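REQUEST FORM: STRUCTURE PREDICTION
Request ID: SP-0412
Submitted by: Lab K.M.
Chain count: 1
Length (residues): 354
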Amino acid sequence: MTPELGVIEGYFGDPWSHADRLAVVARLAPLGFGFFHHAPKADAFLRRRWREPHPDAAAEELAALSAHCRRNGLRFGVGLSPYELYRDLAAAARADFLAKLRALDAIGLDDLAILFDDTRGDVPDLAAKEAEIVHEAMAATRATRVLMCPTYYSDDRMLDVVFGERPAGYLEDLGRRLDPRVGVYWTGEEICAREICAGHLERVAGSLRRKPVLWDNYPVNDGPRMSRYLHLRAFTGRTGGIGDCVAAHAINPALQPHLTLIPAATLAIAYREGHGYCYMRAFRKAARELAGPALAAMLEEDLLRLQDLGIDHLAAERDRLRDRYRAVDHPMAAEVVRWLDGAYTVDRWEGAAP
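STATUS: Completed
RESULT:
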């Protein structure tokens, strides 16, 4: 079974350009994807400055993106992170929150995601406060689907190290309190899960009283470490057997929008082929169709260098690779060149978990 597939643009680092978003969105539905959620960490007006309206130009771009998604057969959503709202639920804060929701509705939303990731969680009654905020959003928004991301969105203990010890029974409390119509994002046993298994998802579904919506942190390559590598290989560790265990499956894309399409295409292939899936065969198929045969062959030849060695270990090969890809007139080749030039390097986490 293939669940609803989507993209949650939830990375750190420089956000994609508006033109690149439009180009990627136009390719997603034919690959088998059904929704696009806009939530880049660099959009301060969806995060730390959420109480402020988007500048006019940014709001116009979001409205255009919404319309473009719908024209191309995708649901459009926005991820709003109302920083510190759970610490202050007084009337003034609620008024600011409702004003923000009205502004987002004006852009045109099919989906609204309220995101509590990457904030302190060692506060009293965390699940109750988060559920209250989500329900207030649900009552106010015109979006037809509401999702949320918990503060503790994975079993990974790194979240407790960075954001404080998670409250005992947090997931169970959240699942009990949340309206059953609310989708809940979940990344897996780790923040960047190597494998996502049916047994784990069934356990999480039992705690949440609903199937989770996967926030799959591949091929994302943000952060000081991951931005040194290009994530191009096909999906592995997500067998078609997990389709029955999730409400939907969204990928967090790479900083390179066009190159992201190659692994994205292989996720749909993995679900379609099930036990017959072969990840390198899927890579070759996706790369040929999206990049063309010549560039696809180059990317496969250089996979070890680009994805495993990374930019810091290319040494003298860096110049050779730059010349090799600069000679190809294709947006994917241009992204390889920009990566080699250090244009995608993220130097710090901006307050997020490593």
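NOTES: The longest strand covers residues 4-9.
Reviewed by: T.R.
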